[in-house]
Design brief:
The protein has 11 helices and 13 strands. With 421 residues, it is of the alpha+beta class. The strands form 4 sheets. Strands 1, 2, 3, 6 and 9 form a 5-stranded mixed beta sheet that branches. A hairpin with a 2-residue loop joins β11 and β12. α3 crosses α6 and α4 runs antiparallel to α6. The longest helix is centred in the last third of the chain and has 43 residues. This is ATP-sensitive inward rectifier potassium channel 8. Pfam families: IRK (PF01007), IRK_C (PF17655). Keywords: Ion channel, Ion transport, Membrane, Phosphoprotein, Potassium, Potassium transport, Transmembrane, Transmembrane helix, Transport, Voltage-gated channel.
């Protein structure tokens, strides 16, 4: 038995319609990629299998400065105690060789007075190296060896003091401490500025002391493959900014918006809003300058991954003039607002400039419609309020109306009377 044909033709059925419907491009989910630079500026990089560990000991001072504070304090304390113990042993040996370790009560010519045990030699070693003179123990002119030990301990003690105190000072005045007050916006934005698609971030300095000769560099880090098949896991591409083109440094007195124009030389030129969310690129921002108070070069870093780039947003103004003084509201430092921005790539905008014009026209029409709706709502509310007030007035004034004149027809036999009420 043959199957009965459907009344609806096959080309108009669900399978036929589904096959003819235009399909949207399907983008693969973005693979979670490790950040190269963390938001606080630290490098997310682990060094493994370093065989030449001795290179770190060739630059002891830099190694000590790079150590954490707990290790630095342990080395600081261990070095001083070890030097005191070493020279305490030297003083004890000098006293032992000269025969100064007499029983209690026995006197004689000594190299160091009141040094009769290792404990007293240790106390004398501390007094010599840190120049604390209590007056109970002192060197005499009886032993040239004691004078030699005194000179050696003074020289070595000065070297240890210079290295350790210099290390503590450098760790305290490190340039990264100044970078804590250099801030970046939490998100980056992409919007239209001067009829061009631009990538923008906001930077600021919380201190009143300025950063002299401040410069900003942008780099895009992504995994690329060369035409020869070579895979570069961390390919760094320099991104020019408007400030770098116009001048060599920034006057970072108030928060600034750093703008990168997405042109044909930009690595973001072929990315649309949807493709950006699926990409694995990372934009690194580096702010460098000289600290005005100390003269030390400082550097602050941060990065933005695709999830932290807001397409179609713009930073809100935060600098206002109040009573002749410019005021900065840092509570709105990272706030953004939505603006009309095409969702296509910068390449498509260059090829079809009408897309930008249509987007701006739609935005203007929607803005006008919203204003009309708002004005109509205000007009309706005012009319409702006006209608309610007029009704109340009518009800309240009903008792004050002028009485109407009514005419009554008199009965037969009576006179014609007009009754007024």
């Amino acid at each position: 038995m043959l199957p009965r044909k459907s009344i609806i033709p096959e080309e108009f059925g669900l399978p036929g319609l589904a096959s003819r419907m235009p399909r949207k491009p399907v983008f693969r989910d973005r693979v979670n990629k490790a950040r190269f630079i963390a938001k606080n500026g630290s490098c997310n990089l682990a060094h493994k299998n370093i065989r030449e560990q001795g290179r770190f000991l060739q630059d002891v001072f830099t190694t000590l400065v790079d150590l954490k504070w707990r290790f630095t304090l342990v080395i600081f304390t261990t070095t001083f105690v070890s030097s005191w113990l070493l020279f305490a042993m030297s003083w004890w040996l000098v006293a032992f060789a000269h025969g100064d370790l007499h029983p209690p009560g026995q006197t004689g010519a000594r190299c160091v007075t009141a040094v009769e045990s290792f404990t007293s030699a240790f106390l004398f070693s501390i007094e010599v190296q840190v120049t604390i003179g209590f007056g109970g123990r002192m060197i005499t002119e009886q032993c040239p060896a004691a004078i030699t030990v005194l000179i050696m301990q003074n020289i070595i003690g000065q070297i240890i003091n210079a290295v350790m105190l210099g290390c503590i000072f450098m760790k305290t005045a490190q340039s990264n401490r100044r970078a804590e007050t250099l801030i970046f916006s939490r998100h980056a934005v992409i919007a239209v500025r001067n009829n061009r698609l631009c990538f923008m971030i906001r930077i600021g300095d919380l201190r009143k002391s300025m950063i002299i000769g401040a410069t900003v560099r942008l780099q895009v880090v992504r995994k690329t493959t060369t035409p020869e098949g070579e895979v570069i896991p961390i390919h760094q591409i320099d991104v020019p900014t408007e400030s770098a083109v116009s001048s060599n440094s920034l006057f970072l007195l108030a928060p600034l918006i750093i703008c990168h124009v997405i042109d044909k030389n930009s690595p973001l030129y072929d990315l649309s809003a949807m493709e950006l969310q699926c990409s694995d690129l990372e934009v690194i921002v580096i702010l460098e300058g000289v600290v005005e108070t100390t003269g030390i070069t400082t550097q602050a870093r941060t990065s933005y991954v695709s999830e932290e780039i807001q397409w179609g947003h713009r930073f809100v103004p935060i600098v206002t003039e109040e009573e002749g003084v410019y005021s900065v509201d840092y509570s709105k430092f990272g706030n953004t607002v939505k603006v009309a921005t095409p969702r296509c790539s910068a390449r498509e905008l260059d090829e079809k400039p009408s897309i930008l014009i249509q987007t701006l026209q739609k935005s203007e029409l929607s803005h006008q419609n919203s204003l009309r709706k708002r004005n109509s709502m205000r007009r309706n509310n005012s009319m409702r309020k006006g209608g309610g007030s007029s009704g109340n007035l009518r009800r309240n004034n009903s008792g004050l109306l002028t009485p109407k004149v009514q005419f009554f027809t008199p009965s037969e036999g009576n006179q014609n009377l007009n009754g007024v009420t």
